[in-house]
Amino acid sequence: MSRMARGLIVLAGFVAAVLVGGSPQVGAQGAWPTSDSYVNADKDAASWLLPARNYSGNRYLSETEITPANVGTLKKAWSANVDARGPLETSPIVWNGTMYVTSSHNDVYALDAKTGAVKWHFPYKPHVIAFSANRGVALSDGKVYEGTLDGHLIALDATSGKPVWNVVAAHDLTNTFYTMQPVVYKNMVLLGASNGDWGGIGYISAFDAATGKRLWDWNAIPGPGEAGHDSWSGDSWKRGGGAIWSGIAIDPATNTLYADTGNPQPDFLGTIRKGANLYTNAMVALDIGGAKPKLKWYRQFIPHDTHDWDPAMPPVLFTGSVNGASRSLVAAGDKGGNFWVLDAGTGALVYRLAVSTQKGQSTEPNRKGNIACPNTNGGVEFNGGSYMPETNAFYVPSVDQCGIWKSQGTATYVAGQFYLGGSFPALYGPSTGYVNAVDIGTGKFMWRKHLAFPQIGGALSMSAGLVFTGGVNGDFTAYDAKTGNVLWHYATGMTIQAPPGSYVLDGKRYVVVAAGPAGVNFADPRLKQGAPTLEGSYKHPTSATITAFTLP
Amino acid sequence: MRTIALGLAAVLILSGAAPARSPVDDHASALAALADVRAAVAEIVRIEDGYAVGHGAYLRAAHRAMNALVGRRDDGYVKSFGDPGDGVGTLGYLDLMLDKAGTSLWTPAVQGAKANVLAAAEDLQSALAQKEMEEYQADLTRALASLALVVGRPSQSGVLGGLSGALANTSLGVPLGALSASGCAAPAHAPAYGVVAGRLAYVALPRSAASAGIPDDLSVARVVVQGDTVVLYTHAARDAAALCRSAARLQRTRSVVAAPSKISYTVAQARAGAGVYRRYCLQCHGADLQGTAGPSVAGADFLATAQRNKWSLSDLRTTVFENMPFSNPGSLTPKQYADVMAFLLASNCYASGSKPFPQTASASLATVKLAQVARAKPANSKLGTCPAK
Question: Is the ipTM of this structure higher than 0.85?
Answer without folding.
Answer: no
